[in-house]
Amino acid sequence: MTPPAAAAAAPYVPGIADAHQPATSSAPGWPLVLYFHHVNPTLRHYTALSPEEFRAGLTRVLREFDPYEPADLLAEGGPRRPGRPTVLVTFDDGYRDNLTHARPILAELGVRAVLFACTGLLGQRSDHPREDYLTGAECDLLASDGHLIGAHTSTHPHLDALPGDRARRECADSLDAVAARYGPGPARLFAYPYGGIPEDAGLPADVLAFGTVRSPAVPWTASPQAIRRTYLPAGAAGTWDGLVRHWRGQWEAAASAA
């Protein structure tokens, strides 16, 4: 067990701006929430890992954190706060390599994830992984494994740069598309593209909404529509062990103070 004092020494990842450093966990006492975009053997992106890296990184995380069941996000009365360190795995955008490369590794490790899909982009195909999206049927296949499909706007704009009515429409259209296909439960899950939170996204009060490292690490009950997520930085696997130990230390410190 990592002693609470370990939480004080935050690992610094070279080459990443201070505002995007991943060392701060999601919120004291709440699940660690990790976000990825791709699991792909050729792509380079700050949250894109090769299959080998994804397996190794997630295995390391699971030595300190139990998987958090996505279904617990939809519990009556709000998301369940576990009494042990847990990790919620999330993917953004709805890329096809989430199915082809991430899915078998998640199954191997016994992890179910939330996949936040840009509903207006589903079905678009390309030879470039950054423009190659899941189809609706492929989302259904992931849902059949126990993963949840959530909303991530329709077309992935910078919501905080849009006029209010357009930002609200992007959110509403995506939530409606998820509700039409998967029911009202998964439609209570949303993630902001780029982590930019508009002044008024128009999200229903019961929607749980996730940001990125741009969101503060506060209890989910205090800010249920700006939940902080963090990440395992691509190209910096040498920092992962220190990050995971630090995240565990933050959880232990919060548990000790409770």
TrEMBL record:
Could you mention a single GO BP entry for this protein?
A: carbohydrate metabolic process
Q: Which domain of life is it from?
A: Bacteria
* Major localization listed first in the record, in broad terms: secreted
Transmembrane annotation, as ranges: none
Respond yes or no to whether keyword Signal is given for this record: yes
Annotated NodB homology domain ranges read 85-258
**InterPro entries named among the record's database cross-references:** Glyco_hydro/deAcase_b/a-brl, NODB_dom, Polysacch_Deacetylase
Query: This chain belongs to which protein, by name?
Result: Polysaccharide deacetylase family protein
The record, for PANTHER family, names:
POLY-BETA-1,6-N-ACETYL-D-GLUCOSAMINE N-DEACETYLASE, PTHR34216
